[in-house]
Amino acid sequence: MSLFSIFQVAGSGMAAQSQRLNAVASNLANAESASSPDGQVYRARHVLFAEQPVAGPAGSAATGVGVTAVIEDQSAPRKVYDPRHPLADAQGYIAMPNVNPVDEMVDMISASRAYQNNVETFNAAKALVQKTLSIGQ
Questions:
Q1: How far apart are the first and last CA of the chain?
Q2: 15 HSE (CA, 13 A, CB side)
Q3: CB neighbours of 41 closer than 8 A, spacing ≥ 6?
Q4: Three-class DSSP category at 73
Q5: How would residue 137 be classed by pLDDT, with cut points 50, 70 and 90?
Q6: What is the pLDDT of residues 56-101, one digit of tens each?
Q7: Which sequence spans correspond to the domains of the chain?
Q8: Among residues 76, 73, 79, 67, which one has the least CA distance to residue 104?
């Protein structure tokens, strides 16, 4: 793997973790909403990753990461008893999003640390390139 492929690999990791953080933020923002704009219950979204080859010099075998899909969690919505709520059913329950805030916070911490690791890798590669260029002076 060439030194310049490291920039593409780290960049692909940062882009993927950024999308993961956006999904977590959306999940947390909608964790207590009783309905979405389309009238349905909000469903948690999860980002799926897969390895992707990155463009590089001929013979380079660098592999980055890419987002293959953002899927909705198909588990049942939470039922909350609130008979006075306008969206309550005949038994007095309202359907709430299937978002677990604790799981989302753990996912957020994991994604932010992975993003930071990619930033540090990017910066280390940048420092190596700068040192290499300064040798010729």
A1: 26
A2: 13
A3: 34, 35, 77, 95, 96, 97, 98
A4: coil
A5: confident
A6: 666 667 888 999 999 999 999 999 999 898 888 899 999 999 999 9
A7: 3-135
A8: 73
